[in-house]
Amino acid sequence: MTNKNKQPLIHDNSKKAVWILITLLLCILALLIGIVLSQKFQITTFTPNEEVKKTDSITSTEHYQKRHPKFYNKKKYTYYNDNKPYNFDTTYSKARTFYSTHEEKPLMFDLNLVDSIDLQALRGVGPSYARRIIKYREKLGGYVRIEQLQEVYGMTKELYTEIIQHLTISETPTKKVNINSENIKELMQHPYIDYYLAKAIIEFHKTYGEFTSVEDLKKVHLIDDKTYTKLQPYISIN
Hints:
- By secondary structure, the chain is an alpha/beta fold.
- 40% of the residues lie in helices and 11% in strands.
- Strands 1-2 form a two-stranded antiparallel ribbon.
- A hairpin with a 2-residue loop joins strand 1 and strand 2.
- The chain starts with 11 loop residues before the first helix and ends with a strand.
């Protein structure tokens, strides 16, 4: 008896050959896609020394002006060439990564002229640190020694060591505090004069009369040599 509903059989070997061919084509396609993507997104690696040069160096004026015209800011700095400083005008941005050239050495920023955006060009100095350095300069009446940076709130030994090699101080006149003033609050505006020292200065003034010279401050009982040396650039008698 013949079965009329019987379907023709497909050989198993033919099925296997088709699937093997499809799998092979898919593998070849995936390999080609991988090659194309690897060439398009190829990552360049650098040696540690090269990375340090890229992050720690400050670039030429032309590079700053072309790459960061938004932050273009012209100021006078000191450039050191064979230990012989001379002034020149330069430009730069607040960008944090710089690329060095063989012809130029790092700039030296004047601590009494630099602004908060300028300071952010230094490695490790963000907006917060930059504002603190500028604010403390205003309270002091100007920096007279690089070491005063260590007095800035939150300044770490590591950051101080890192940035002082890029800083210098010009002989800019400091803002003076009149020690003949009888106003405690006025005297206390300077960070080196606390309430007790301000009171002692006023008491001395009331007892012995006005200070006739800056050196008379040494006669106040709370003033030792160290305190006087710190205060001397910032005090006046009128």
